[in-house]
Please model this.
Amino acid sequence: MFPLKNNIVLDRQANRNLYLQLSDQIIGFIKSGKLSPSAKLPGSRRLSEDLNIHRKTVVAAYNELIVQGWIETLPSKGTFVSNSLPIINPSSFSNTDSLNKLKLKSNFLFISRPNLFCGSSRTPKNTEQLIKVNDGSPDHRLAPIQEIARTYRNITKKRYSQNLLSYGSTYGNEDLRNALATYLNQTRGLHLDIDNILITRGSQMGIYLASQLLFTKKTRVITGVTNYLTADNTFEDANAVIENVPVDANGIDTNAIEVICKIKNVTAVYVTSHHHHPTTVTLSAKRRMHLLQLAQQYKFAIIEDDYDYDFHYSNAPILPLASNDYNGNVIYIGGFTKIIAPAVRVGYMVGPKDFIDEAAKLRRIIDRQGDTLLEQTLASMITAGDIQRHCNKVLKIYRSRRNLFCSLLKERLSDYFDFEIPDGGMAVWVKLNKKYHWDNVVNEAYNHNLELNPEWQRYDPNNLGHNGIRMGFASLDEEEIHEVIDRIQKVFKNL
Ligand SMILES: Cc1ncc(COP(=O)(O)O)c(C=O)c1O
Model:
C-alpha cells in the first residue's frame, strides 16, 4: 500500500485547515494514480498516530473525501478509494518531466494566431524603485475610487438592485445608455438616442465588434502609418486587407485615402482623429470634412476611435467626426478606461441603429452582457456630474504634467530626443536620435530602475526606422517626472 505516513506533509502555520490539507493531498495521490481505485486507506486512529494529529482531523478529512466522492466506507471492512473513479495509469504521471509537459502541451488541435500579441501572463513584481514609463495610461492613483465605491454601495443597498443581479440587456444597462446619450450629445455634439448605443467592455471590444461586422476576406480597411497596433491586429484577425496612408502634422492624409477609393473598394477607414495613436497629432478640420464627404460618396464606414477625447490641453476639445455625420457613416468608439482607470472595463460603441443591433447580437455570443452594477454606478455618476468633475480635475493635473515633462525633455534631453508638444492625450511621441537604438536605451534603463516602454517595436511594424515611441507622462507625478528625466540622462551617459 502507498505509505501515506511518509508522504503527507502538514503545515500547522498555514492558513488552510489541517483536515483540508490532508484531504487535498489524498486527492492528489488519487489523481496521480499513487492511490489506485479500491486501495485501502489506514483507519482514522492509525493515521492520526502516524501523522501525529488529532483523530477528529482525520475523520473530518475522510468525511470531506466521502462527500466529494473520492473515497467510500464499507461497513466493518474499512475505508477505500472509490471504485467508480476513472482508472489512471500511474506510469504516465510518474515523473515530473511528463507532468511538466502536460502543463505546456495540449493534446488537441486549435487555431493559433502568431500575429497577435498578448503581453506577459504574469505581472512582474513591482520593485519599489522601478519607475515605469508607459505608453499613455491615466494615473490610476487619481481614480475617484471612493466615489465609485460609495455609489456602488448605495446602489446595492436599494431594493431595486436585486433586478440588476439577474440577466439584463445585451445592449448594456439602460440607465447608462440614457445617461450616455445625454452626456455625449451635450459634450461632443452628437445627436443620438439610446438605440444608437451599445455598452462594451472598453474601446477595444468596440473595435473588435465593428471589425467582425465589417470585414470578410479581401475587404479593405485604411489606416494611418503608423497606427495603433492592436487595431491593426484586430482588422487582420477579421481577414481585412490593411492599406496604409501617411500621417502628417494634420493627421491622416485624406487625399491619399481618396486616391485609393478611386481605384479600389474600401470598407472602412480607422481614425484616432482627436489624438492620432501613436503620434498624437489632431486631424485638421479640413481633413475631417473631406473624410466625411469621401465616406458618404464611397459608402465606407469610419471607425472613429476617440479613446482619450477628454484630455485636450491647448484649446477646447475638437468635436468628433461623429458630430458631423448626417449620413450614417461613423461608428464612434469610446470608454471610461482612460477617464477613470484601465481596469474599469466599460466603454461604448455608437452608430446607426441597424449596425448597433447586429453588434449586440455578436456581443451576446462573446460576453452575454456587461457588469450591470458597475454600469449602473457609472450612470449615477454621470447624472450627478461626478464624471465631468473628475475629468475637469485630472485635465488640469495632466496638463501641468505634460508641461513639466516636455519642458524637462527639451531642456535636458534634446540631444537625444526629437518631439512636438502634444495638444492632448497622455503621451508624447518621442523620436530617438538615430545614433542610438531603442534596444540599447531600454536595456540600459533597467540598470537605472527605469522601464521605458519595452514594447517599442510595436510602433514600427513596417520597419520604417522612424525610431519613435510613446512616453506616457499622465501617470507620473511631478517628483516621478523629475526622477525619470534624471535617470534617462544617466542612461545616455552610460551608452
Ligand atoms: C488608440 C487606442 N484605442 C483603444 C484602446 C483600448 O482602450 P480600452 O482600454 O478602453 O479597451 C487603446 C488603449 O490604450 C488605445 O490606445
Observations:
- The chain has three domains: 4-90, 131-142+394-494, 145-388.
- The first helix runs from residue 4 to 7.
- Residues 188 and 319 are 6 Å apart (CA to CA).
- The pocket of pyridoxal-5'-phosphate is lined by residues 202-204, 228, 272, 277, 305, 307, 335, 337, 342, 347 (CB under 6 Å).
